[in-house]
Structure formats: C-alpha cells, structure tokens
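Re: the request from the purification team.
They wanted to know what the chain is likely to look like in 3D before they choose a buffer screen. I agreed to run a prediction and write the result into the notebook, where they can find it.
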Amino acid sequence: MALSKKWSAHIEAWQASGLAQADYCRQQQLNPKTFSARLCEYRRGKPVSPPSPAFIPVQVQVPASEPLVLRHAGGHRLELPSGISAAWLAELWRCLG
C-alpha cells in the first residue's frame, strides 16, 4: 500500500521542523501512534543508501624555522626541512605506504 501524499507531506514537514515527533504531532493535532506507523511505512518505501564518505579539510602550518618531523608508531623518525615540496612529500608517502 502506497503512503498517502498527506502522510508523506507530514513526515517531510516533521523532518524539516527539527521538532521531536511528539511535539510535531501535538502541534499538528496528529495521533502519535498513527504518525509512528506511517513513518515506518514511509521508511520502508524509501531505499536506504549508505552515507557518502566525509572528507575533512586539513591545513598544516609549520613555522618556517622548524623542521617537519614525521614519527612512526614503530619508533622511526624522519626529519625534513620545513620548505619541503608538498609533491615530493606526497610521493614519499605513497612509496612508504
């Protein structure tokens, strides 16, 4: 059974509202149990897609006078001049990976 447009609209409005289900139902004068049942139907009808990976931008700032020090968990330490080329460092990282 397809969910009615009325219930789909209510569910989407609730999601956009940021309210708790009970608060939304009270505000809209809806039966909370009926709302929950329609929400289950709504979710069953929607394909679930995995979340896309999140990339976090990182900016590294190293004072020009201090070397860049890479430490490995195994105790290895690599000290590089602060002006090292990012491309060279990326190639090194690939080789060591």
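For the purification team: Residues 63-97 form one domain.
Please add any questions underneath this entry.
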